[in-house]
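mind reviewing this fold:
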Amino acid sequence: MSDRDDSGKVPNLRSTATISVAQTAPIRIHHLTEVLCADDPSLRRSMPAAAQKVLRLTSGRTADAAAIDAALAGDAALAAPLISLAGSGLFAPRAPIASVREAVVRLGIEATRDALFVIVMNGIAAAVPGFEAHAESLRRRALAAGIAGRLIAKTLRVESGHDFLVGLLHDAGELVLFQRAAEEGILPAGVLDDPTDGPMILAAIENDHTRVGAGLCRVWGLPPAVAEAAEFHHDRRAGRRGRLPSQLAAATDVIALHVTGTPTPESTHQPIFAEVGLSPAAAASVIAEVEAMLPVLATVGTARA
């Protein structure tokens, strides 16, 4: 039997198994979202146990350098990057730091928490075998958004203590949902390169990532504003008035995409900047600072360094 059609040409056949997996992926991604959002332990496992313990310490009144040092004892995957970040000059003046205790003293509790989340996000992005390029893109975008969140809040003089996390984690659901979908075998190798299936799968993750992100922030015990930013940054006008955390997250999104994607001449005149009160000149200044800081933050404290 010939493989040729009536025209005499050989059809461009794709694997039936691949078509089946790719076509059902959006449905399976939505089911995965439902499962994750209904199962706190499943969401919580995105963060190492030692990191969870440190975050509980940093959110209470008993946190000190000794307690955090003890919590990270024996977990080099967290301790070593924290020491590296503390000595990088990004969170504190550059100086030799040799231990977790010294790192916490130098950083302070709030910045230690922020640095720990950078390390956690790095770890999640590194756990998506077969999709390294896309995971790395999401990781860099999150870092750029975190930097932008801190700089925008400082420029507007509305610093809250968690502006870095609003930027860094507002799309955490996208990275975690992508990682879990790959882990569950929902994403066939190379599917993102397919001109039809790739966009379809990315759209499914985009549709559900805000729910997963809000759930993550909740089980991680983060301030309500961080969870709100994760949930509403694509719907920041929900309700009778704008939501400041989600507005900030949306602004960081624009800057992060500009810095890590394709820059556009109109990037400083985006409507979201006027919405939060950031002038084009101020937006340009923030973009320049993010561009300067991202290369260092993207490599320090990781296996890529």
The domain at 131-305 is CATH 1.10.3210.10 (Hypothetical protein af1432). Residues 132-156 form the longest helix (25 residues).
